[in-house]
Design brief:
37% of the residues lie in helices and 30% in strands. It is an alpha+beta fold. The protein has two domains: 69 residues, no CATH class; 82 residues, GMP Synthetase, Chain A, domain 3, CATH 3.30.300. The N and C termini lie far apart (75 Å).
Length: 164
């Protein structure tokens, strides 16, 4: 109990007050950014992992259906990672006598965090069901197309004939 009392007394001293304020501000910014905050969604915001996967699936279906000998197609894409963003940070230093306190926070412009790098989800597998896939040539072309567009290893692409 005496350690807690000593700690609270130290917090009350004028020397550690800037440190406490900086820590509370940093935790508040971190909490707001990590747990939703009230940022407006804009078109500049990176796409979510699910929308990226949905767009990729739609693109694959569209192109697969243009292969000679191929009809209707459905595609399922599996991602091993969700992707994400890195944000710009700024560090501020506050010197009070012989103590220097540094605070780091995310850079905001008009209430929006500045994104410095965006990671797309990592595709780990693709399943295609297509009319005409029972033809080995069509199946081969579908596999080549999927490997080219997604970068996924050929062993992680499965193609099945569409049940008519």
């Amino acid at each position: 109990m005496s350690k807690l009392k000593n700690w609270t007394e130290k917090l009350k001293s004028k020397k550690s007050l800037p440190l406490v304020i900086a820590a509370v501000l940093a935790m508040t910014v971190l909490f707001v950014v990590c747990f939703g905050g009230s940022f407006d969604k804009t078109s500049d915001e990176p796409a979510s992992a699910q929308s990226y996967i949905d767009d990729l699936q739609n693109k694959l279906v569209s192109v697969i259906q243009k292969i000679d000998g191929c009809g209707r197609a459905e595609v399922a894409v599996v991602a091993s990672t969700e992707g994400g963003c890195e944000y710009a940070y700024e560090t501020k230093s506050l010197t009070d006598g012989d103590k220097t306190t540094q605070t780091t926070s995310i850079v905001l412009v008009k209430g929006q965090p500045i994104v410095t790098k965006t990671y797309t989800p990592q595709v780990s597998g693709v399943v295609v069901v297509a009319e005409g896939a029972d033809n080995p040539v069509v199946k081969f072309e579908i596999i080549n197309l999927v490997v080219t567009l997604t970068g996924v290893d050929r062993d992680n692409v499965r193609v099945f004939a569409y049940k008519v």
